[in-house]
Amino acid sequence: MLTNGSQGRTGRGADDTAGAAAAAARATLGVVLAGGLARRMGGGDKPLLPLAGRPLLDHVLGRLRPQLGALALSANGDPARFAAWGLPVLPDPLPDHPGPLAGVLAALDHAAGLGAGAREAGVAGQAPAWVVSVPGDCPFIPPDLVARLHAARRATGRPLACARSAGRAHPTVGLWPVSCREALRAALLAGERKVGRWAASQGCAEAEWPAEPVDPFLNANTLADLAAAEALLAGGDRPGRILR
Question: How far apart (Å, rounded) are the C-alpha atoms in residues 232 and 228?
């Protein structure tokens, strides 16, 4: 497991690490798992609920966009409700709404399609080889998420990586190689629905963040959670400052 303290480098090592991080970011597609329903908050799409005057999805995308080369949304139903963001909306590639793993598979398929297009255009080096997934209700995603997930999988030699905080893993905040998509498809068809279990079966590194003073993977699952997030954004201890 990698912690914040294990990231320090100086001199040539720091340059090499920064170069690797930049190359990995360019080769990574970000997907927001935006299909969550706000059942405990009156219904509707949870990422579209207001937080500090903007949709929750705005906060998630604002934190993820600077870290990646491209973004997409995973959601079923009418994609027009996400038209304001101008991003590809990826429905589940399998029937019966199998859960977050299906959203990850949709993103892996989309990344593979981008790769095929890049090869046809003669720019294969620009094809995404990785997908980073984040839930659509995590407004405090850390600004070093993508770099540290890649660092964790490089350091351990494992193909996948996920975030960890407060003594538990967050497998939906994960890094997935495009090369695992057929194995994931087979697992879903065989009935697998547990994100953490399948990730562990493939070999999953963990990168840990401190949960104090703000857990960067706080989920807005209830109206109380949403109110707490609003208070954090409005207060002096702004997560955007703390987590940097």
Answer: 6
